Each structure stands twice: as structure tokens, then as C-alpha cells.
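Q: Okay, next protein. This is Branched-chain amino acid ABC transporter permease from Hassallia byssoidea VB512170. I've checked the sequence twice, so it should be correct. Can you predict the 3D structure?
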Amino acid sequence: MADYLIFLAISTSIFALFALGLNLQWGFTGLINFGHVAFMTLGAYTTVLLSLKGVPLLISAVIGGILAALLGLVIGFSTLRLREDYLSIVTIGVGELVRLVVNNQDLPVGDAWVSGAFGVQSYTIPLSTAPNLIVRLIMIGLLTLLGGITLYSLWRWIRSTKKLGSKQEFATHLGVGILFALLTIAIYISGAIALYDYNPKAGLMLSSLLVLALVFWRLQVLVRSPWGRILKAIREDEEIPKALGKNVFWYKLQSLMLGGAIAGIAGAFFAWQLSAIYPDNFQPQLTFDCWIMVILGGSGNNIGTLLGAVIYFAYDSLTREYLDDIFPSLSTEQAGAFRIMIIGLILIVLMVWRPQGILGKKEELTLGK
């Protein structure tokens, strides 16, 4: 059970990071990106191929994020001066283009060139070897610090909602806060035990959670800054910031690049989690899974994005585990289709009942007005 919880924590943190990049682009800036997986693909392959050449993992992941940002720069210069429809069309094409190029191109794997269709295996994964006791205790200390900061931040978030929000908003935030607190405690207990006995997956979990916390913190600062307020103004009506003398194109480009860089870093962790990557690991479905997370939690809300990732992976794991017990007559293909149908039904109900998402603010979002 502890190992499975660690696996879910890694998966959720990676896709929460992936979704934060999309939420910056769509939720805060209004950029429709249906090819977000392209940034993840570029980040994953760059990190893996550089690490096989002997480049340190941290530097490899940073370079992967930079190249993903440069991809956003190329896409932005091509489309952001046009109508938003063109951006959505181009990003779909770019997402598939990157995957197909990787699939059909020979890749420099070590000292040889290997067909991309064969995938890349046997690359270095961070913290794969057991460290000494002192390092393990330091890692447990970092996990403890991260858990403590998370619980304290949740308490402040709920308290501020009680003072400034409505009763309904307070009740929603209280329920979400309790859910996150319970998950934090469960992950902390499982992670601390696994770090002490040392399970390499626990080391990867700690790394992904630390990066997610850092990115989330900096994004919260950014979106509350004047820069973030301009992004929201562009989302609502870009003619207004234009009239105030703001370079709307440049702000859109910054948002697309930063969101792409975050997705590129998520791609590095995704590759490390899989231990072997193939082009088919980066299907367009990943982008639409990411959209589900953002819509469920509430676009334009970073905490909502984290909540959407938690809900999505909780649903995914529960249906994989128990759907066969509930409907034993379903074949494997039928069960997969049924799971997609149910998540679609959930989205339809949510759009009718609460179109802004669970934590989104209806008065703040025009929702395509």
C-alpha cells in the first residue's frame, strides 16, 4: 500500500506540474493550447539524451525546460499575432509533429544512433542508489519541512477564506483543505518510512514534490504581481491592456514560454518515473488529461489545478482497481471506454452545476464571453 501511495504521489505531482504550465497559459492568459504534450516530449527526450552523454541530471532537466520554452517562442512568434483559433490548431499539429519526428528520427543514445521507434532505455535516474544514513535523514527532514509548510499554508488559506469569503466558499475550501491535509499526512508517513529503508521511488517522489512546491510558490507570487494582473486583463479583453500601452504580444509570449518550460521540467520527471520512454508515451491524450485537471479544479486557480490532478488520479486509480469488480462482464477495451465515458459525464455535470470549476471564481472568469 505504501509503495502504491508513493507511485500515486509521483504521478500526481508530475501531472500537477504539467497542468500548472497549462493553467498559466489558459487559465491566466487565455491561450488555447491543445498541444501541451509537445513541451513535455521535448523536455523528456532532452533530459534523457543529455544524461546519456554524461551531462548531470539537474543541468539536463534545466536545458530540457529551456528548449521547451524556446519551442513556445517559435510557436508564439508564428501564431500569437493571429486569432486565438490559429494557436489551438497550430499547437495540436506541433504536438503530433514533435512525437512523429522523435518516432522516425535516429537518436544519439550513448555512442550509437538508435531509431526513435525503439525508445530510450537504461538512462540514469536521480537518487537511484541508496545514500548513507545522514543523507537519508536529511531527505526525511526535507520531507518533514515540506509537509509542515503545506499544512501551515492550508491553515492560512482556510482562515483567510473564513474572513473574506462567503459561507459556501468557506465550506468548499474547508473540504478541500481537509482532503489535502489528509493526503499530506499519508504521503509523509509512507515517504518517511520508504526514505529511511530507502526505496529509490521515494527519492524521486521527494524530488518531484520539492520541484512542484517551488514552481507553485513562484507562480503564486507571479500571478499576484502586476505581471500576473496584466495576464488576467489580456484573458478578459486584450484591447484594454493595449489601450493602456502594454505590449500584449510580449506578455502572451512570456506566458507561453514559461508554461512550456514548466511542462518541459514535468517531462524530465515523467521520463525518470517511466525508466524507459517511447514516442507512444506522449500521445495527445496527455494534453486532454491535463485540460481535464485544469477544468475540474478551476482554471485561473493554481490550488484548483492541484486539486484537479488529485481528483483525476484518484478516479483513475480507483476505476482501474475496482471497475472489474463492479462490472465483471466488461472486456478490457470496454472498461477503458467506460472509464473515459464516466469522466466525460462528470465534466458535463460540472459544466452545468459549476462551470468555473470546483475552486474557480465565476465572477472573475468570463469563460469565453
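A: Here is a summary of the prediction. The chain has two domains: 2-130+198-353, 131-197. The first strand starts at residue 106 and ends at 109.
Q: Noted. On to the next one.
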